[in-house]
Write a structure and sequence with these properties.
CATH topology of the largest domain: Rossmann fold
CATH architecture of the largest domain: 3-Layer(aba) Sandwich
Strand content: 5-15%
Bound molecules: S-adenosylmethionine
Distance between the termini: 12 Å
Largest sheet: 10 strands, mixed
Order of helices and strands: EEHEHEHEHEHHEHHEHEHHEHHH
Number of helices: 14
Radius of gyration: 33 Å
CATH superfamily of the largest domain: Vaccinia Virus protein VP39
Number of domains: 3
Helix content: 40-55%
C-alpha cells in the first residue's frame, strides 16, 4: 500500500508512478519495508551550480544522509540502496574532494548501512575536465569514473549474479567447445590451480565491479520527442544500462524499484521494461512531466506534447490516455495513405494506358515513314511524317515518366501506411506487457 495524493502523481503506467515533490516527503508515502531496490543518482556536489540544483559541498553529505535515513525505513531487510556519485575537484585546487567517500562513511558508520560492494562506472565517452587541470595545464588525466555505492540494509541483500552474466570471451568459448585441447593442469603464478571446473559452461562470465557504459543515448523516445518539440532534455541523465544492471542483479520480476532523484526517469523506464513495479520521485514538475516521453513509443510529437502538457498540470494515465491518440493518428495516417494509394493507382493505370496508346501511335508513325507507298512524296510531307514519329516518341517518354512517378507515389503511400501501423504496434507491444501472466502472478 502507498499513500500519495493525486496532486503528487504526474503519470502512471501499468507498473509504475512518477511523482513530483521533495523525496523526503514522498518517501513517507511508502510503507515500511516495502521496497526491494532504490537506485538513484543524486544531484552532485559539483562546484558550479547546475540547472538541476546543487547543495553546497560542505552541507552535501548531511543533506544526502537525510534521504539515506528515510530510504532505510522503506527498504525490505533484503533491500539495497545503490547511489551513483560523481567525483569532483576541490574548489580552485587540483586536488580531489572526498565527498563520495564521506557519503560512504556517513552511510555506513552513522546510518548503519552495509557496503555490499563498491562499483565504478567507467564512461569512456566522458569529456576531459576540469579544463584548467586537464586540458590547459595538463597536470591531471581525464576523470572518467563515477563511484557507485551499493549499500544494503542487512548483510544479506537479495542478489543473483546469474542475471547479469556477460558473454564469454572468444578464448573462453574455444575452451568450452573443446576443454581437453585447452586444459593443462598448471599452477598460475599466484599458485592457484586452474581446475577442470574452469571449463564448465555457466552461461556467461561473472561481471567485474567496473561497469563500462558510455553515456550516449541517441535513439530513445525521450530524445526523439524532446528534439522534435524543441524542449531541452534533462542535463544529467545516466545511461539506462546502469539501472538495468542493478535492477537485474538485485531484484526479481514483480519487485519494487524506486528512484528518489529520478530526473528523466531512466530508472522507471527500465523497471517497466523488466517487469518490476516502480516509483520515481522528482523535485521539478517539469522534469517529471517531460519524462513521460520515455513512455510514449511510436507516438507523434504533437500528441506527445498534449500528454506532456497534461502531465504538467494533472495526472496522465498510461496507456489509457495515450491509446486513443496513437490509434487516431494511425487511423488517419492509414486513411490518408490509402487515399494516396488510390490516386497513385489511378494515375498509374492512366499512365499505363497512355504508354500503350503512345506505343501504338509510335508504331503507326514509324510504319507510315517506312512504308511510304507514294515514292513521289514531297519533302514537306516527309518532314511531317518524321515530326509525327518524334511527337509519338516524346508522348511515349512522357507516359513512361508518369508511370514511374505514379509508382513512386504508390510506394511512398504504402510506406507511410506501414509506418503508421508500426507506430501503433510499438505502443501496443510496449503496453501489452501489462496483461502477461507473469504480471498477474506478481500482484
Ligand atoms: C542527477 S539528476 C538524476 C538524473 C536521472 N538519473 C536521469 O537519468 O535522468 C538529479 C535529480 O534530482 C532532482 N532533485 C534534487 N533534489 C531533490 C529532492 N529533494 N527530491 C526529489 N528530487 C530532487 C533534481 O531536480 C534532478 O533532476
Amino acid at each position: 500500500m502507498t499513500s500519495f495524493t493525486d496532486d503528487q502523481k504526474v503519470y502512471t503506467t501499468p507498473r509504475g508512478t512518477q511523482l513530483h515533490g521533495d523525496s523526503l516527503r514522498l518517501l513517507q508515502g511508502l510503507d515500511d519495508e516495502s521496497v526491494d531496490l532504490i537506485v538513484t543518482s543524486p544531484p552532485f556536489a559539483l562546484q558550479r551550480k547546475k540547472a538541476y540544483g546543487n547543495e553546497d559541498q560542505e552541507a552535501y553529505v548531511d543533506w544526502l544522509a537525510q534521504f539515506g535515513e528515510a530510504a532505510k525505513r522503506v527498504l525490505k531487510s533484503t533491500g539495497s540502496l545503490v547511489v551513483d556519485i560523481g567525483n569532483a575537484y576541490r574548489k580552485g585546487s587540483p586536488t580531489r574532494s572526498l565527498y563520495p567517500y564521506r557519503v560512504l562513511l556517513k552511510f555506513v558508520d552513522e546510518l548503519e548501512y552495509h557496503l555490499a560492494e563498491e562499483f565504478f562506472w567507467y564512461n569512456p565517452a566522458k569529456l576531459p575536465s576540469p579544463l584548467e587541470w586537464v586540458n590547459k595545464r595538463r597536470i591531471r588525466v581525464k576523470d572518467a569514473v563515477n563511484t557507485v555505492w551499493w549499500f544494503s540494509k542487512t548483510e544479506w541483500p537479495q542478489a543473483d549474479v546469474n542475471q547479469v552474466l556477460l558473454p564469454y570471451s572468444k578464448n573462453m568459448e574455444r575452451l568450452l567447445k573443446d576443454p581437453e585441447r585447452y586444459y593443462k593442469a598448471t599452477l598460475r603464478p599466484s599458485e592457484h590451480s586452474i581446475s577442470r571446473h574452469f571449463g564448465n559452461d555457466n552461461g556467461g562470465s561473472i561481471p567485474p565491479n567496473l561497469l563500462q557504459v558510455s553515456n550516449t543515448e541517441s535513439n530513445s523516445n525521450y530524445l526523439r520527442l524532446c528534439r522534435a518539440l524543441d524542449i531541452k532534455s534533462h542535463p544529467a541523465r545516466f545511461p539506462s544500462e546502469l539501472p538495468r544492471f542493478f535492477i537485474e542483479f538485485l531484484t526479481k520480476p514483480g519487485d519494487v524499484v524506486v528512484d528518489i532523484f529520478s530526473g528523466s526517469n531512466t530508472t522507471g523506464m527500465v523497471a517497466e521494461q523488466l517487469g518490476r513495479k516502480w516509483y520515481s520521485f522528482e523535485l521539478s514538475r517539469d522534469y517529471a512531466a517531460l519524462s513521460i516521453m520515455r513512455f510514449l513509443p511510436g507516438m507523434n510529437p504533437q500528441d506527445a506534447e498534449v500528454l506532456y502538457e497534461k502531465a504538467r498540470a494533472g495526472t496522465v494515465s498510461l496507456p489509457e490516455d495515450g491509446q486513443p491518440l496513437v490509434t487516431t493518428a494511425a487511423q488517419s495516417a492509414v486513411a490518408e495513405a490509402s487515399l494516396s494509394v488510390e490516386s497513385a493507382e489511378a494515375a498509374l493505370g492512366a499512365a499505363e494506358a497512355e504508354v500503350l496508346r503512345a506505343g501504338e501511335n509510335l508504331a503507326e508513325a514509324k510504319f507510315a515513314a517506312e512504308w511510304n507507298p507514294d515514292a513521289t512524296l514531297d519533302a514537306n510531307a516527309e518532314r511531317a511524317v518524321t515530326a509525327a514519329v518524334e511527337r509519338a516518341k516524346a508522348w511515349a517518354d512522357d507516359a513512361a515518366a508518369a508511370r514511374r512517378d505514379a509508382k513512386r507515389r504508390l510506394n511512398y503511400a504504402r510506406k507511410l501506411a506501414d509506418q503508421a501501423h508500426a507506430a501503433l504496434r510499438e505502443f501496443e507491444v510496449f503496453y501489452k506487457t501489462k496483461f502477461t501472466a507473469e504480471d498477474a502472478t506478481a500482484e
